[in-house]
Design brief:
This protein has a single domain, classed as CinA-like (Maf protein). It is about 40% helix and about 20% strand. The protein has six helices and five strands, in the order αβαβαααβββα. It has a five-stranded mixed sheet, sandwiched between helices. A hairpin with a 2-residue loop joins β4 (about 105-110) and β5 (about 115-120). It is globular, with a radius of gyration of 15 Å.
């Protein structure tokens, strides 16, 4: 993540997390100097918080499920708006199998106008699944920043 510092000069990032419960924010703030670009985090575990704070329409949740591409991408857009940041990372998922649900974690990253997402489905146990999701969204966000044209910075 140290490489983010040079790519985020003058830019800001935040997180909106459900199943990762703040782990993405924790990983970001574990690096000295994160206050130069990291604005804040919202752990939106309940649907009501996703709806009220991140602008996820209840109809979207009803139609697609709370663990979906549509919801995680809205979480990214909503977090950028809520925190007033250039970029955001987000997660929503079933980190372990339960009541007929298989492991499925959606991660998202990008800006309000350029959102990307990916679904993780492998089951390595709840704790490891959350660790993997955290590592993967940070890795993908780093690739996203690397692919931006220099004029974006």
């Amino acid at each position: 993540m140290q490489e983010w510092r040079s790519r985020l000069v003058g830019k800001t990032v935040c997180t909106a997390e459900s199943c990762t419960g703040g782990r993405i924010a924790s990983a970001i703030t574990a690096v000295s100097g994160a206050s130069d670009y990291f604005v804040g985090a919202l752990v939106a575990y309940q649907n009501e918080v996703k709806e009220r704070m991140l602008g996820v329409p209840p109809e979207m949740i009803a139609e697609h499920d709370v663990v979906s591409r549509e919801v995680v991408e809205q979480m990214v857009r909503g977090a950028c708006k809520y925190f007033g940041t250039d970029y955001a990372m987000a997660s929503t998922g079933y980190a372990e199998a339960w009541e007929g649900h298989e492991v499925r974690i959606w991660i998202g990253w990008g800006s309000a106008d350029d959102v990307h997402s990916l679904c993780l489905r492998e089951d390595h146990g709840r704790v490891r699944n959350v660790e993997i999701a955290t590592e993967k969204v940070m890795e993908e966000f780093s690739r996203f920043l690397d692919a931006l044209p220099e004029s974006e910075f």
